[in-house]
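Table S7 (text form). Paired inputs.
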Amino acid sequence: MTKGLPLRAFARVVALLSLVAGIAAAAACVSERTSPIIDTGDCVVPPAAAGTTIVFIKHFAYVPATVHVPAGGSIAWVNCETDGTPHTASADDASFSSGLLNRNDVFVRAFPTPRTAPYHCDLHPFMKATVIVD
């Protein structure tokens, strides 16, 4: 009788892990179109960013890496690096560039027409992301 107990416990663990994996997958699908919750520490989002979609720059990444905005919408990039590392948000096709963004600096850009705009950091070329204007 005790031999069956570990098997049942194992089955429960497998079921629990499957449930957790399913929740994580569902959260990933939902997060594609919503701003994720990240620890911005004491990063300040200035009033200039009000009414925009916000992209946080933190840990040498754009969060979210893919952002959707409606045509006519705006995006605000905010540098939230706690160590003060500067970054840029520069379109691969050179159609926009934030210039140097220091800690808590913001760059706001309107996107009037539908398009896909990949962008990167001029200082850290491995940092890449995409704006999709619907």
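Next pair, protein 2 of 2.
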Amino acid sequence: MTPRRKRERPTKVGRSIIIGIGNPYRGDDGVGLIVARSLRDQAPRGVAVVEQDGEPAALINAWEGADVVVLIDAVSSGSPPGTVHAIDASKTRLNRDLFRHSTHSLGVAEAVELARSLGRLPRALWIYGIEGTNFGASQEMCQEVVGAIPQTVQTVLNKIEELVLPTRT
């Protein structure tokens, strides 16, 4: 039996950051914050985990100088609640309608597209959008969104390790 290999720590390619986005007082909109809190103790060494409310200028400033960014936010596309959408935003333009539930007039899609036009996107920008349904003030998170949290945490961990670990030849 071969010995179990120790989990390698990432080599810092540049600054790497995980950003959970949301409003904890608007039901499913708080899911990005909960995922970020779950990742805080599990993220590889050298990967920052922060929480944001989704305000565009703050988001762009948060990832300033980062090579790798993973954002987690609630979305509303009409898919079943709890569906997790993975978007490589460094290569794909974002559909504003996906983030239409935002409590700001401008949100994640606008921040990403503004950063793209200003040449301020990180090398890698992945967005994990968890499909929500309850976005009203003081509403609770729906069970499907709560059920998607563990899967999203693991998916984000896998993606961040893929993006920051050195390539083996």
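The radius of gyration is 16 Å.
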